[in-house]
Design a protein that fits this description.
It is built from 5 helices and no strands. The longest helix has 43 residues, at 71-113. It folds into 2 domains: 3-68; 71-113. The protein is an all-alpha fold and 138 residues long. The model has no long low-confidence stretch (mean pLDDT 85). It starts with a helix and ends in a 25-residue tail after the last helix. Helix content is 66%, strand content 0%.
């Protein structure tokens, strides 16, 4: 590892200590990766990509030292609940649609297979049969 990389890592670790102690100097003091990057003076993406292990270490320390759930985790948990609810609604709508389609298919089958008998009334002139009658008019 080069010197710049090591310097960034030491600044990130010092920033972790300041944030967890509640003594931020360059950020808003929130316990987030964005605040950690600002506090350390590194680009947020550098923290996300090159120093992902330190970001995870920071969140682990937030959990153990402050007994708090990190904001990112709270947002993700809320999103998981929202997505599970949306999936449940989607599955219910799919089941209702499937039921309607089955009912329509059954109704169509009954109409197609129904044989006219003497008790049936003749079809109005504007009704076109789905299959030709068996009258032998070919």
């Amino acid at each position: 590892m080069n010197q710049q990389h090591e310097d960034e890592r030491s600044r990130i670790r010092a920033a972790m200590d300041r944030l967890l102690a509640g003594e931020p100097t360059c950020s808003n003091g929130s316990l987030t990766a964005t605040a950690l990057a600002a506090e350390a003076g590194v680009h947020r993406m550098a923290l996300q990509k090159r120093h992902a292990d330190l970001k995870e270490e920071f969140y682990a320390r937030v959990r153990t030292e402050t007994h708090q759930t990190p904001e990112v985790e709270k947002r993700l948990r809320k999103e998981v609940v929202r997505l599970k609810e949306a999936l449940k609604d989607s599955r219910a709508a799919e089941a209702a649609s499937r039921h309607r389609a089955e009912q329509m298919a059954l109704a169509a089958a009954v109409l197609i297979l129904r044989q006219p008998d003497s008790q049936d009334q003749p079809a109005p002139d504007n009704v076109i049969p789905l299959r030709p009658s068996d009258d032998g008019d070919d």
